Amino acid sequence: KKKTLRKYGIAFLAYPCSKFGSTISNISQHLTVLRKADIILRRKDANFMYYSLKDNNIVALMDTLKKHFCE
């Protein structure tokens, strides 16, 4: 089973690309916007970039929004 940002705190860039049917370039641009908005953190390890949510309360907010608007 693939790890997701919501469940594990980090995600591989290929996962959101396949999940949302987007390109790596497009997802990378969105991640840059989220990082500049101070929502996510970025960590580089060798040739890999790891992204994580800066605040775990974001997960609670996403769950609430999903409950009210997507279910």
Brief description of this entry?
Helices cover 52% and strands 20% of the residues. It is built from four helices and three strands; from the N terminus they run αβααββα.
Structure description:
The protein has 71 residues and is α+β, with helices and mostly antiparallel strands. The protein contains 4 helices and 3 strands; from the N terminus they run αβααββα. It has helices spanning 5-8, 14-20, 24-36, 57-69; strands at 10-11, 40-45, 48-53. It has a 3-stranded antiparallel beta sheet with strand order 1-3-2. The longest helix is centred in the middle third of the chain and has 13 residues, at 24-36. The radius of gyration is 13 Å and the shape is globular. The model has no long low-confidence stretch (mean pLDDT 76).
* Span of the ends, CA to CA: 23 Å
Mean pLDDT: 76
How many individual β-strands?
A: 3
Q: Specify Rg, calculated over alpha carbons.
A: 13 Å
Helix content: 40-55%
Query: How would a textbook summarize the main sheet?
Result: 3 strands, antiparallel
Q: Give the structural class.
A: alpha+beta
In DSSP terms (H or I, runs of 4 or more residues), the helix count works out at 4
Spatial sequence of strands, sheet with the most strands: 1-3-2
- What proportion strand? 15-25%
- Overall outline: globular
Give helix and strand order, one letter per element, not per position: HEHHEEH
Low-confidence stretches: none
